[in-house]
Amino acid sequence: MKLAVLGSGTAIPVLHRGASGYACIADDGTALLLECGPGSTRRWPQHGITLESARAIVVTHHHVDHVCDLPAVLFARNVPEPPITTPLLLAGPVGHAAHLRGLEAVYGAAVMDRHGAVRVVELADSHVIEVGPFYVEARAVQHIDGAIGVRVRADGRTIAFSGDSGACDALVELCRDVDLALLECSYPIARPSKSHLTTQTAAETAVRAGVTRLVLTHFYPQCDAADREAEVRGAGYRDWLRLAEDGDVIDV
């Protein structure tokens, strides 16, 4: 399994980072998308992801910078003749079905599933789903009500993804015994937060969980202005570290 970074940024527009978007790509080419932030679908072709190979989209919460391309995907599936009828799982936190109904109310038939190919699943703490080669487990994390992080397993490898979360015990447990942890890191040490991780709290989470391969992402502009690696190392994390950039591809 590979991890592709479609967007390593946030809601703040910057030239070099798109909004939240990642893809877990199995050895057979099947893709499971983590988040679907605005513009993230434009990076699909760079990584060989198509409307047919994208078999699941998992969103961790309903902030705009994590979900805004969902109607773009649903619309794009209906545009070709014949339309795309490959099965697609749309998974998200409690309230996800209502969110998707709201999109249909705004955009109408253009985003509606006319062929029974789209399945919607809501994920609460400890819920597990399987789709294609992927096994996904959700954990409630500390951000907004209902926000989740997920563990994704495929091809004998496991990745933990924090979604958006502050430091919490659930996030430590999510990251235990994984091959790769993908953690948000919104801010430098100088800007503490209880609903997001900083370079310090991301490092502390990784150390508590015993993470040996860590990718940090979801950088606000304040983070780009800081020496993020020095702050992470100063907070005690000593193992393999990568600061995500849009377009990265990482072997899990």
- The fold-level CATH name is Metallo-beta-lactamase, Chain A
H and E order? EEEEHHEHEEEEEHEHEHHEE
From the helix content, strand content and strand pairing, which structural class follows?
Answer: alpha/beta
How much is the radius of gyration in Å? Answer: 17 Å
**Count of separate structural domains:** 1
Name the average pLDDT: 98
Put simply, the count of helices is 7
Largest sheet: 7 strands, mixed
Q: What is the helical fraction, as a range of percent?
A: 10-25%
Shape: globular
Notable characteristics:
21% helix; 252 residues; seven-stranded mixed β-sheet; 7 helices; Metallo-beta-lactamase, Chain A; alpha/beta
Explain the layout of strands and helices.
Layout: E1 2-7, E2 21-25, E3 31-34, E4 54-58, H1 64-67, H2 70-78, E5 88-93, H3 96-107, E6 118-123, E7 128-131, E8 134-140, E9 148-154, E10 157-161, H4 169-175, E11 180-184, H5 199-209, E12 213-217, H6 221-224, H7 228-234, E13 240-243, E14 249-251
Parallel strand pairs: 3-4, 4-5, 5-6, 10-11, 11-12, 12-13
Antiparallel strand pairs: 1-2, 1-14, 2-3, 7-8, 8-9, 9-10
Produce a short descriptive summary:
It contains 7 helices and 14 strands. It has 252 residues and is α/β, with parallel strands linked by helices. The longest helix has 12 residues, at 96-107.
Write up this protein.
It is a single chain. With 252 residues, this protein is α/β, with parallel strands linked by helices. The protein has a single domain, classed as Metallo-beta-lactamase, Chain A. The protein is 21% helix and 29% strand. It is built from 7 helices and 14 strands. It has helices spanning 64-67, 70-78, 96-107, 169-175, 199-209, 221-224, 228-234, and strands at residues 2-7, 21-25, 31-34, 54-58, 88-93, 118-123, 128-131, 134-140, 148-154, 157-161, 180-184, 213-217, 240-243, 249-251. A 7-stranded mixed β-sheet has the order 6-5-4-3-2-1-14, with no helix packed on it. The protein starts with a strand and ends with a strand.
